Amino acid sequence: MSHHIVEVKGLHHTYPDGTLALRNISLRITHGESVAVIGANGAGKSTLLQHFNGYLTPTAGEIRIGDFPLTRETLPDIRRTVGMVFQNPDDQLFMPTVYDDVAFGPLNLGLPAGEVDERVRAALAKVGAAHLQGKPPYRLSGGEKKRVAIATVLSMSPDILVMDEPTNGLDPFARRQLMGLLREFRHTRIFTSHDLDMVLDLCERTIVLHEGEVKADGPTRDIFADAALLAECRLEKPLSMQGCPVCGTRG
Ligand SMILES: Nc1ncnc2c1ncn2[C@@H]1O[C@H](COP(=O)(O)OP(=O)(O)OP(=O)(O)O)[C@@H](O)[C@H]1O
């Protein structure tokens, strides 16, 4: 299913203030892959993800989603294909109620009212936020906002799910619930996270960014076993691979 493929060729991104955030990034993510993009603060993870559905435009290089290069003409279709959860849920929630926010995307697809309602209820139930549907988003807690932001993307049934720090601000129960949901999602998943145990659990492939460049791209366990790479990129092993300080067993 080629429409689930994300391809990046020679991507550079310089912000208007002159910050060079991405340098010559090339990668290809195919259907059904679960891929983590990790790196220290400021490594370029959010900048990279925001190119996948055209929120940022490359300074140089190309993004292809499936068979199409990302251009002004293909952008509406690509936004239907790629569901993006931003790091900050306030960037995603702007309607008077939670229900309206989750319905916004499906309504824009022109779906009949009954189907929109079905999608909204299913998406809110999946993130455990059905009870919040009548509330204004600005009255929600940080973790509640995050869950609703995720529901706004799920209600669009995207082919490719892109999430920037999806577990940020979630309590342990909500984190586990989200991990279950990501595990169930059968199409392409790409996310950034500092939650390296989640990365180890959910992603067979990990891409390491360091100072705007791809430093490594490979099987997640191999990445976390490379102590020199982790040290160079200011990363640590997931807790579950650090061994038990009491009994001395290795992860
Ligand atoms: N709007 C902006 N204008 C100028 N520079 C920016 C802008 N947004 C991000 N940057 C810079 O681009 C670089 C990459 O930032 P980015 O947000 O992509 O990092 P990140 O890896 O997602 O970090 P974090 O883990 O802290 O979320 C950083 O040097 C940052 O200061």
UniProtKB/TrEMBL annotation:
It comes from the Bacteria. SUPFAM superfamilies: P-loop containing nucleoside triphosphate hydrolases. Transmembrane segments: none annotated. Residues 6-236 form the ABC transporter domain. Coiled coil: none annotated. GO terms for molecular function: ATP binding. Belongs to the ABC transporter superfamily. This is ABC transporter ATP-binding protein. It comes from Oryzomonas sagensis.
